[in-house]
Design a protein that fits this description.
621 residues, alpha+beta, Penicillin-binding protein 2a (Domain 2), Beta-lactamase, 2 domains, 6-stranded mixed sheet, 5-stranded antiparallel sheet, 20 strands, 34% helix
């Protein structure tokens, strides 16, 4: 019995000795081998300073710098270290009042009494120098280096976009971002955020109780280096973009120009716009609020991607192609025009005076409403389908292949769909099987329920120039020095219309400019193929629309221009498009009288210089 008790005693002693040994090993590991526990123990004297990388630069297609970085500084605060600050002096330095100081300090304390957070964001270099001299008077405050985005040219605000502080919802979803981090909010800055942002680093500095920097912790053993963001090379032509914005001064509308062979966007103008530098630094919030409150001009609204218009007569090109594909139209098909197309009950789709009858190329050249009402009716009455509804659904399927009624998928955020109405819509509106071709005849001339965005209109010009295919329009042509683009931008989209049907349409478009509704768009030594459109607007004067591409052979530019409330397509949109084409292809403009009239034309306030010179000899569409 005694022997058993003795053995048990040794077992208990051994057990406690083993536990003691494990505690000693763990204590040695924690205190000697693992510095992270030392960091936690000394958190009150260590400062973890995020090293923010420089965002990638953005260049135009010719290597001109569009967006770059400039040094800026964030005033940081660690609430627990703030001891009886000279509130009035600090408020004066950064331009706030005492109540705002208390609010910000309380917000920082709620975030963390021990960790730094932003007290005043994006202080410029000029203001930083003055602040730095006096910062020693404010324990608990320090300055952290950041960068601001700057813009070489005051153009393309909607396309380039801007950056802002990451919100709490985003931070909760994405562990990369912390409070005070900046992120792309719109434009290229948003689309290519993960490429542009780079990778954050971290430096750990030791500070004494008097807030004096004593150097790197453990000689920088735990520091990490930031990695700069990758540069982007855009397809934008900065000179063309600037010229387009000049032409659209005091006008509402847009210009979109695309290189047909690649889908690269050459310029994308939305007017009215704003200087992108207004949304940089600590003035951003104030200026953004002012821009947002401007409900008259809506400068933040990207008309090129978000506005949807009836395409007017530009859509006749689509029906010309679909009619041929469906076998109800040929280049030789001729229709007479008695001055309009009767639709019953004494109502008529009006048309202007012109020679009659016309073949297909002539119908496009003259933009005859009667001709294309007949074309659309023949598509809807096609005996290959059991009824109008079936014919319409096939017409709609072909129209969708042109890139209408859905997002094209460009690399700029906030693109909208536009609209190609559905059969279900007409069933609901008119009753099932109670509508016919004459009910929806306005679709034949690009009116009614059709809505197309300006970028979709420019893409229409592209696919006609290419005789039936297009690349998804995109604004970035290279990421870094490599052509590492999304594969979607390098895949041809084929329209559901045979390539052979495009020749007569292109012939008609060439005649539009040489002898039709857009003779004012002619350019010496360059064959321009175009189509005017006048979109009916129930809220005011009609919209002026023009699409075109040039030259006719091996086209290098396709373009759409929309001038809201500007009347005929030939009066404003066509001349502006023609000047843009000349600027891009010749790199200079020689028609100075036309240029001056377009730039000085004020369509917002109704002051239109040279109104008496409005191309009276041109057939207006």
């Amino acid at each position: 019995m005694e022997r058993v008790l003795a053995n048990r005693k040794y077992i208990i002693i051994g057990f406690f000795a083993l536990i003691g040994f494990f505690f000693l090993v763990r204590l040695f590991y924690v205190q000697i081998l693992v510095d992270k526990y030392i960091l936690s123990a000394n958190n009150n004297v260590l400062r973890y300073m995020t090293q923010y990388p420089a965002r990638g630069l953005i260049f135009d297609r010719f290597g001109k710098l569009l967006v770059y970085n400039e040094a800026a500084y964030d005033l940081m605060v660690i609430p627990r270290q703030v001891k009886k600050p000279d509130t009035a002096a600090l408020c004066e330095l950064i331009g706030i009042d005492k109540q705002e100081f208390i609010r910000r300090l309380e917000k920082a304390r709620n975030y963390s009494p021990y960790r730094p957070s932003i007290f005043e964001a994006q202080i410029t270099r000029e203001n930083y120098g003055y602040l730095e001299e006096k910062l020693f008077r404010f324990p608990g405050f320090f300055v952290q280096l950041r960068t601001l985005r700057k813009y070489t040219y005051s153009v393309a605000a909607h396309t380039l976009g801007y950056i802002g502080e990451a919100g709490p919802d985003l931070i909760a979803k994405n562990s990369y971002y912390k409070s005070g981090d900046y992120i792309g909010i719109s434009g290229i800055e948003k689309s290519y955020e993960e490429v542009l942002r780079g990778k954050k680093g971290m430096k750990i500095r030791v500070f004494d109780v008097l807030n004096r920097d004593k150097g790197s912790f453990r000689e920088g053993k735990y520091d990490t280096t930031s990695v700069a963001g990758i540069d982007l090379f855009s397809s934008m032509d900065a000179d063309l973009q600037l010229y387009g914005e000049q032409l659209m001064t005091n006008k509402k509308g847009s210009i979109v120009a695309i290189e047909p062979s690649t889908g690269e966007i050459l310029c994308i103008v939305s007017s009215p716009s704003y200087d992108p530098n207004l949304l940089v630094g600590n003035i951003r919030k104030k200026n953004y609020t002012l821009l947002l409150q401007d409900t008259v001009f809506n400068p933040l609204f990207n008309r090129a991607l978000m506005a949807s218009y009836p395409p007017g007569s530009t859509f006749k090109l689509v029906d010309a192609l679909i009619g041929q594909q469906e076998g109800v139209l040929t280049p030789e098909t001729r229709y007479s025009c008695p001055g309009g197309f009767p639709i019953g009950n004494g109502k008529v789709v009006a048309c202007h005076a012109h020679p009659s009858p016309l073949d297909l190329a002539g119908g496009i050249q003259i933009s005859c409403n009667t001709y294309f009402c007949r074309v659309f009716k023949s598509i809807m009455d096609n005996k290959s389908y059991v009824n109008t509804r079936a014919a319409f659904e096939h017409w709609r399927k072909l129209a969708l292949s042109f890139g209408f009624g859905k997002k094209l998928g460009i690399d700029i955020p906030n693109e909208l769909n536009g609209n190609i109405p559905t059969a279900a819509y007409y069933d609901k509106y008119h009753g099932k099987n109670r509508w016919r071709a004459m009910t929806i005849i306005s679709l034949g001339i690009g009116q009614g329920e059709i809505g197309i965005t300006p970028v979709q209109l420019a893409n229409l010009a592209c696919l006609i120039a290419n005789k039936g295919w297009f690349y998804t329009p995109h604004i970035i042509r290279a990421i870094g020095r490599k052509d590492s683009l999304n594969q979607a931008f390098m895949t041809k989209k084929i329209v559901s219309v045979d390539a052979s049907y495009f020749d007569v349409v292109i012939e008609g478009m060439a005649n539009v400019v040489t002898a039709g509704t857009a003779r004012g768009a002619q350019i010496d030594s360059i064959t321009v193929c175009g189509k005017t459109g006048t979109a009916q607007n129930p809220h005011g004067k009609n919209h002026s629309i023009f699409i075109a591409f040039a030259p006719r052979e091996n086209p290098r530019i396709a373009i759409s221009v929309v001038c809201e409330n500007a009347g005929f397509g030939a009066t404003w949109a066509a001349p502006i498009a023609s000047l843009m084409i000349e600027k891009y292809l010749k790199r200079k403009v020689t028609r100075k009288d036309l240029e001056e009239r377009m730039i000085n034309g004020n369509l917002i306030n109704g002051k239109v210089p040279g109104n008496e010179r409005e191309q009276r000899d041109i057939l207006q569409d």
